[in-house]
Design a protein that fits this description.
The chain has about 220 residues and is mainly α. The protein has helices at about 5-15, 15-20, 25-35, 40-60, 70-100, 105-130, 135-140, 165, 175-185, 195-200, 205-215; strands at about 155, 215.
Length: about 220
């Protein structure tokens, strides 16, 4: 999970265009490009540098002569762009620049956080079912084939779910799911993943996934 950016360094960076009158904007954006490995920040740095350079060039070019209106407008825009627009830009992207995870890592971190959250939901659903199986059945825990509001993290009730739902468990096939349902009808239900594997003669490597995603409500 990303941590909150450190206030002092991030604001010092974000306000650099303001207190340097725009001259520091290309350098602050280049820092952002290097820190975040971002082409877009690199292009922004080049754009601000071009505007600053053009302003300096025009100021020197017309230092001793009257400045034409087009050149005067260009000078104002090239001065205010890195200064004011650069300040707004820096403040807008401050959190992104100073976040702990690089952009290409963010997706992975979010995926891990989501997987951990789903696992926690499964554990909560199992604990609820253990203490109150009647409520678990009412909430339709393990029954993604039925309308419900409770999020059980992806559990499947092997004792009640139809074969097509059981077939969605990792490693299972429609044929294996039908085999589980046939044995379930014969024995009246299962008590654990090991029980299912033994009774339905499943390949041993499926037991771990059954234990993770299966639930066995009485």
């Amino acid at each position: 999970m990303q941590q909150r950016p450190s206030s002092a360094p991030s604001y010092l960076w974000a306000l650099a265009p303001l207190y340097t009158c725009g001259f520091g904007t290309p350098f602050s954006m280049m820092y952002a490009a290097i820190r975040r490995r971002s082409v877009w920040y690199g292009l922004a740095s080049a754009g601000y540098a071009t505007a600053t350079g053009l302003w300096i060039y025009l100021a020197e070019l017309y230092e001793a002569t009257e400045v034409p209106v087009p050149a005067s407008v260009a000078m104002v825009l090239c001065m205010l762009g890195p200064w004011l627009i650069g300040t707004v830009h820096s403040l807008a992207v401050r959190r992104q620049v100073f976040g702990d995870a690089a952009p290409y890592e963010t997706g992975n971190e979010q995926a891990i956080a989501l997987a951990q959250h789903r696992r926690a939901l499964r554990q909560q659903a199992r604990e609820l079912a253990q203490h109150d199986p009647v409520m678990a059945r009412e909430l339709r825990i393990g029954r993604p084939d039925l309308p419900r509001q409770y999020d059980d993290g992806g559990l499947v009730d092997v004792n009640r779910a139809p074969a097509p739902v059981i077939a969605n468990l990792p490693g299972l096939t429609p044929a294996l799911a039908e085999q589980i349902v046939r044995v379930r009808d014969q024995v009246g239900g299962f008590v654990s993943a090991e029980d299912v594997s033994a009774a339905a003669s499943l390949p041993p490597h499926l037991t771990a996934d059954l234990a993770e995603y299966g639930i066995f409500l009485p």
